[in-house]
């Protein structure tokens, strides 16, 4: 699928397809309605829109579209009522509602066209887009149209929905909005308490203040109850759990501070000692909840917990005993069933090939990009992609017993990430909490001999003022901001914790196929004077005699020619070939060999051609490795141990050794579970491993690693279980992200320093028994504001730093 | 000055009403998607030439 970003299409130029914005090749160009299109598909979409007066689609954004894919037969399973019923959100005789995930949604034009679907298809009542989740929710009348028709319509206009086994039969997950409610309540209480507290801050002994003091104070008390009991409830639970587990996380002093504040303030107003600290308490809870909201930013349109289900189709075509084709859900596939697999379809189960031959691409499972030929009677494994004409197979195992599902049932997938890791805030609080309690106890003991009331006052004041609000806010705000910045730069991390883990990494393991190489096949291009057919014939015949890998590839590339007899042939190893055919001298090889020019594009693999002493041009072997790979490894090699694990054989060892820094370890022939074990071994050596991989075959390794980042050409569709998803175009920025995560942690340490400074100031008031509510009410928001602005500014500055 | 009891009570009641409105809005899912509505409100009169031509085109389109 073509994916056009807004930036690319901003400057419309005649060479770009009006619909999808791709380059238009002159020979394929289609002119329609005075606009140029790159293919028939794009033209058809334009036609549909213009016939229905929907050309405004192109007004909001230039070339917003995608080329529709051929989907013939792909959605036949939507004829099956049972399957449809499972996909629908709501079903009744007259109305059905379905939510479809459409990866292509990316601009306002998309929203517009998808919300005007009723203009294109009768029976659709309404449709509304959720841009963040890339979903469209369609309400339709089942008698007038069907889900299949809708899906086919969407596909025909380039918005093919992504329907996989994951959508199937899943209980609709409930959106958790508790945090928003808590923040709402806390803000309500905080605001009102602040307003009601103001008179007492300034007019200490005025006549009328004394008159109404009781009323104000009890009202404040009442307002503080919802915050104390409801909004802050999460902290009590977390603190209780952490104490029971024998750890002292940051929530312990927070919960303690809140409770002490509430009790002390209540006592204060009962005995008329003062106004209490309700204002500080409500503000504290509000700010901390806000920090939590900031930290849990999620990318709704990405799913980090995907398993094999998201890759498998919902249904496949089964051949019934009477020869008819019926769509059947993959879970209903039985041993012995006969299945029909179309081109580009994924094999959902293990089986035996019945058709004469098939070619299966297992790159998904093994990482080996070359399709494997299978003959009738061969065993086929689940996860392979069928290429070529339709095949028939007999099922050996049901879905749950197949190879892929077994890989997924490995223990690593059951483990929770949180257990592996202790956050930086928790580490600090391990020292902070005991120190705080110790200080409170000592001050209490000191004062108790002087004055018991003051001793209690001091004790509570210390717990109140040291309540580590700023400390607790530091990490959420820094990491939340960094998460957002990285998201803008197309590295999507699962949550803020991953940044901390990222900064601790000292070993990086790369997968080869699909990660450091692109999935695209190596293309050979020719630069120079165009070669005549007779000259090509000469070349092909010369190349036949050479066994050099480049010669072999070039030989395969040049179209078939008649054989000619070679008069003389000489190959200079590592340089090139000189041969004479039909009295003509042909010279092939490196630029030094031809001596026609000096070149400095040493990284590009080229074969130059010279015929009869005339330089013709060169064949360029386009690098299949990602751009910037060498520079990236060069940068990373200074700080990290680098490994490349590959499922392929070691055919490319030489090339990789030449390209990559010498301290990179290359390991070949690794099956998915061996990769997993290799990572385990590294971790046992005490290394903090980051795995960068792609595809389902790396899923085990990604889950085993300390940080698993998945590279994706199209972030929307394929992303296995991992901690982060990196857009493939940003591959060369990995070093930048690593550096940025380290700087983020540095920012956190710096602001820890600042917040401790505030604590010292506050404590100096508390220990001496002089903590007035107004001091607490000033210090608390001041420290929060300082910390939040400090970390926001710092993390933005660091993000601008190039690396 | 005892009017202050009345005034403050009223102000709290008003504030409670807003809190209630906020919670209701959250519950109805208004804040789940904070981007689409901002774009949607800008679409308005683009669909001008609504004729029964539509009907014909739908059948045409199905053949495609």
Strands ordered across the widest β-sheet of chain A: 16-28-27-26-17-24-25
Instruction: Give a quick account of the main beta sheet of chain B: strands, pairing sense, barrel closure.
Output: none
- What is the alpha-carbon Rg of chain A in Å? 33 Å
What is the chains' assembly state?
heterodimer
Major β-sheet of chain A, in short? 7 strands, mixed
The N- to C-terminal Cα distance of chain A equals: 32 Å
Distance between the termini of chain B: 79 Å
Helix- and strand-based class of chain A? alpha+beta
**Uncertain residue ranges of chain B:** 49-64
Unreliable runs of chain A, pLDDT <50, ≥5 residues? Answer: 1-13, 416-420
Query: Roughly what fraction of the amino acids of chain B lie in strands?
Result: under 5%
What's the SSE pattern of chain B?
A: HHH
Instruction: Give the number of DSSP strands of chain A.
Output: 28
Largest interface between protein chains, with number of residues from each side: A-B, 40 and 36 residues
What do the pLDDT scores of chain A average to?
Answer: 80
């Amino acid at each position: 699928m073509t994916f056009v970003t807004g930036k690319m299409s901003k400057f419309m130029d005649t060479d770009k397809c009006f619909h999808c914005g791709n380059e238009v090749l002159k020979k394929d160009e289609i002119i329609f309605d005075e606009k140029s299109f790159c293919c028939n598909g794009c033209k058809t979409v334009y036609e549909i829109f213009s016939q229905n007066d929907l050309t405004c689609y192109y007004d909001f954004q230039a070339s917003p579209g995608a080329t529709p894919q051929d989907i013939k037969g792909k959605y036949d399973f939507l004829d099956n009522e049972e399957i449809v019923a499972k996909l629908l959100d709501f079903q009744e005789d007259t109305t059905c509602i379905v939510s479809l995930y459409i990866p292509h949604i990316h601009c306002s034009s998309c929203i517009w066209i998808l919300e005007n679907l009723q203009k294109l298809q009768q029976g659709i009542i309404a449709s509304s887009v959720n841009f963040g989740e890339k979903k469209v929710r369609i309400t339709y009348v089942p008698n007038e149209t069907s889900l299949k028709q809708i899906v086919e319509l969407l596909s025909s206009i380039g918005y093919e929905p992504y329907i996989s086994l994951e959508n199937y039969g899943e209980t609709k997950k409930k959106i958790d909005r508790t945090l928003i409610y808590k923040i709402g309540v806390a803000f309500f209480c905080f605001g009102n308490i602040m307003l009601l507290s103001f008179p007492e801050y300034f007019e200490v002994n005025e006549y009328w203040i004394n008159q109404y003091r009781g009323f104000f104070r009890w009202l404040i008390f009442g307002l503080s109850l919802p915050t104390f009991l409801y909004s802050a409830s999460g902290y009590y639970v977390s603190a209780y759990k952490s104490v029971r587990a024998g750890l002292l996380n940051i929530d312990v002093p927070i919960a303690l501070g809140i409770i002490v504040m509430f009790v002390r303030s209540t006592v204060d107003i009962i005995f008329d000692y003062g106004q209490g600290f309700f204002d500080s308490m409500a503000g504290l809870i509000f700010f901390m909840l806000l920090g939590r909201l900031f930290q849990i930013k999620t990318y709704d349109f990405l799913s980090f917990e995907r398993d094999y289900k998201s890759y498998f189709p919902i249904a496949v075509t089964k051949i019934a005993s009477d020869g008819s084709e019926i769509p059947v859900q993959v879970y209903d596939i039985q041993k012995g069933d006969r299945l029909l697999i179309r081109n580009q379809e994924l094999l959902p189960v293990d089986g035996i090939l019945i058709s004469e031959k098939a070619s299966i691409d297992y790159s998904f499972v093994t990482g080996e990009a070359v399709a494997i030929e299978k003959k009738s009677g061969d065993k086929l494994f689940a996860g392979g992609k069928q290429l070529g004409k339709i095949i028939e197979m007999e099922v050996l195992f049901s879905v749950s017993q197949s190879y892929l599902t077994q890989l997924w049932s490995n223990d690593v997938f059951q483990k929770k990430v949180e257990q592996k890791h202790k956050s930086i805030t928790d580490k600090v609080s391990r020292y902070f909490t005991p120190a705080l309690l110790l200080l409170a106890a000592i001050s209490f003991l000191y004062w108790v001999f002087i004055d018991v009331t003051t001793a209690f006052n001091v004790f509570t004041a210390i717990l109140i003022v040291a309540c580590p609000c700023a400390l607790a806010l530091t990490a959420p705000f820094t990491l939340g901001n960094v998460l957002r910045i990285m998201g803008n730069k197309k590295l999507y991390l699962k949550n803020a914790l991953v940044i901390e883990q990222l900064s601790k990494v000292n070993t990086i393991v790369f997968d080869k196929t699909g990660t450091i190489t692109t999935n695209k096949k190596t293309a050979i291009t020719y630069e120079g004077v165009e070669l005549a057919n007779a000259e090509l014939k000469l070349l092909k015949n010369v190349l036949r005699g050479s066994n050099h890998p480049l010669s072999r590839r070039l030989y395969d590339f040049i179209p078939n020619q008649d054989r000619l007899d070679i008069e003389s042939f000489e190959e200079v190893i590592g340089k090139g070939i000189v041969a004479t055919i039909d009295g003509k001298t042909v010279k092939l090889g490196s630029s030094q060999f031809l001596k026609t020019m000096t070149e400095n594009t040493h990284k590009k693999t080229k074969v130059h051609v010279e015929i009869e002493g005339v330089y013709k041009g060169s064949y360029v072997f386009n690098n299949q490795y990602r751009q910037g790979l060498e520079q990236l490894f060069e940068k990373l090699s200074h700080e990290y141990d680098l490994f490349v694990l590959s499922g392929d054989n070691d055919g490319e060892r030489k090339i990789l050794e030449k390209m990559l820094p010498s301290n990179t370890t290359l390991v070949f022939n690794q099956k998915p579970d061996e990769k997993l074990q290799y990572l385990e071994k590294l971790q046992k050596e005490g290394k903090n491993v980051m795995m960068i991989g792609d595809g389902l075959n790396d899923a085990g390794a990604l889950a085993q690693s300390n940080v698993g980042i998945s590279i994706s050409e199209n972030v929307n569709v394929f992303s296995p279980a991992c901690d982060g998803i990196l857009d493939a175009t940003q591959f060369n920025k990995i070093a930048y992200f690593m550096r940025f995560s380290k700087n983020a942690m540095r920012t956190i340490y710096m602001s820890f320093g600042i917040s401790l400074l505030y604590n010292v100031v506050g404590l100096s008031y508390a220990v001496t028994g002089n903590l007035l509510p107004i001091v607490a009410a000033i210090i608390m928001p001041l420290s929060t504001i300082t910390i939040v602005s400090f970390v926001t500014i710092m993390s933005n500055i660091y993000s601008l730093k190039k690396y | 000055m005892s009017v202050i009891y009345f005034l403050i009570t009223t102000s709290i009641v008003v504030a409670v009403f807003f809190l209630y409105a906020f919670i209701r809005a959250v519950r109805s899912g208004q804040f789940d998607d904070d981007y689409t509505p901002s774009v949607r409100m800008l679409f308005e009169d683009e669909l001008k030439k609504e004729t029964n031509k539509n009907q014909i085109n739908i059948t045409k389109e199905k053949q495609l």
